């Protein structure tokens, strides 16, 4: 989805935009081969689970369109009672709607915070290393290949 085609910017109702962003997250995660689960109801501190094989991680999906300075966006990280409590989720998947960019933030990096400043184009920004860091949800380390598969019939006989 390109910047000009991103219709989420035009959804003014926060609840409806949140539902739309959850769908955008699910589509992207499934395209990347992740196995998602969904908690029943709305009382959990997370929106999805991702099965990493060895363990299941909990993901809270958030979004922002709120500009912070010339380069950034402020993304709220709280529920109706204030900042999320420790152990409510394992990762925040924060979508910067106008830029069509995801930040995958570990819970320990944002614990107790009311909001985070996300700067998709500023390499020296605090959370830039988490931009499109989908490997974290898969349980992979950056730069490592999880598995290589090949078939013998794909190679010429020697």
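Sequence proposed for the structure above (158 residues):
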């Amino acid at each position: 989805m390109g910047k000009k085609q991103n219709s989420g910017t035009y959804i003014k109702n926060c609840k409806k935009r949140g539902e739309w962003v959850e769908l955008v997250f699910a589509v992207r995660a499934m395209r990347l081969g992740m196995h998602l689960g969904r908690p029943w109801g709305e009382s959990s501190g997370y929106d999805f689970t991702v099965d990493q094989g060895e363990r299941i991680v909990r993901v809270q999906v958030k979004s922002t369109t709120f500009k912070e300075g010339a380069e950034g966006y402020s993304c709220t990280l709280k529920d109706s009672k204030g900042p999320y409590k420790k152990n409510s989720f394992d990762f925040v998947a924060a979508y910067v709607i106008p830029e069509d960019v995801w930040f995958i933030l570990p819970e320990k990096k944002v614990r107790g915070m009311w909001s985070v400043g996300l700067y998709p184009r500023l390499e020296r920004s605090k959370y830039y290393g988490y931009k499109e860091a989908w490997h974290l949800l898969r349980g992979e380390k950056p730069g490592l290949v999880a598995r290589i598969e090949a078939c013998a019939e794909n190679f010429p006989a020697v």
